Amino acid sequence: xxxxxxxxxxxxxxxxxxxxxxxxxxxxxxxxxxxxxxxxxxxxxxxxxxxxxxxxxxxxxxxxxxxxxxxxxxxxxxxxxxxxxxxxxxxxxxxxxxxxxxxxxxxxxxxxxxxxxxxxxxxxxxxxxxxxxxxxxxxxxxxxxxxxxxxxxxxxxxxxxxxxxxxxxxxxxxxxxxxxxxxxxxxxxxxxxxxxxxxxxxxxxxxxxxxxxxxxxxxxxxxxxxxxxxxxxxxxxxxxxxxxxxxxxxxxxxxxxxxxxxxxxxxxxxxxxxxxxxxx
Length: 280
What we know:
- Helix content is 47%, strand content 17%.
- The chain is built from eleven helices and ten strands.
- The strands form two sheets. It has an eight-stranded parallel β-barrel, surrounded by five helices.
- α2 runs antiparallel to α11 (257-275) and α7 runs parallel beside α8 (175-189).
- The protein is globular and about 50 Å long.
């Protein structure tokens, strides 16, 4: 059975749901649910947004280490040096960056854009030799194929990152388009693991996540009930369940229904209390 890595983004994406703000205790409880259910990576926040956000990520990572959790704590930031320093200071080793590729950018200018990555990655590798670095290249649905190919070749040539995250940030792709794009990217990516992250603007996020994994993505980025920016992203339980039926293992204990319901209910209760509307 093929095994992929599951990244639960309920905390970081959930904070982009209108009106939602997770406390440290709420994040800690979510991290504990994720650990109990076999999630590989918890994307715990966006530290450069505010010093308090950075402190929460640092505390969650410390808690996971202190209690011998198998789950890895990650966080997201922009792919430039100030954010890299903040991410490193939290003590995490799973460091996730994002970088916008203008859809109309000529290919020569992309080389310059990506050259700015080199000192950022060098800093992280020096400060955290054991770091697992992910780079989200935005936006898969709007980036022309030649630009995406050029980005992958540059990353390969310089051995910059461990994971290439390809988000359909605008949520405009259909499953067949995702399968074609991810399949092509995975073939070019060589040693880089391709990760799939799909938004739900057209109601396709979970289906797109499944098709991306079937096409060759080795990592999956999802959340409880698909909570996230705008209409959200792929659903944690649905994607894990469907992939298991397809012979692909995520490690997520989708068959522990009572525990899954408690996790979903916990997040839903927070959202209902803070916004007056539920997720489930």
